[in-house]
Amino acid sequence: MSNRNAEEQRMITIRDVAREAGVSASTVSAVLGNRAGRLGIKAATCEKVVRAAAKLRYRRNDIAAQMKSGRRSSMLFLLSESVDNILFGGLAAACAEAENAGYFPKLLRVETENHEELHRRLELVLRQCPAAILCWGDRSGDETYLRRVTEECSIPFVHFDYVSRSSRAYVRTDDPSGIRSGVEHLHMLGHRRFAHITDIMKAQYAEIRLRDYREALAEFGLELPENRVLSLGLNAPESGVRTFLERMRGEGVTAITCGSDYFALQALSVLQRDGVRVPEEMSILGYGDLGFACNCYPRLSTIRQPQAELGVCAVRMACRMIRGEPVTEPVLLPSELVLRESAGPRMK
Question: Going from the N-terminus, what domains does the chain have, and what CATH number goes with each?
Answer without folding.
Answer: 3-60 (1.10.260.40), 69-173+307-333 (3.40.50.2300), 174-305 (3.40.50.2300)
